[in-house]
Amino acid sequence: MADITSYFTYIVRCSDNTYYTGKTINLTKRLRQHNGELAGGAKYTKIRRPVVLHYFEEHESNLLAARREITLKRLTHKQKEILCSKKTI
Question: Least CB-packed of 32, 39, 45, 68 within 10 Å?
Answer without folding.
Answer: 39
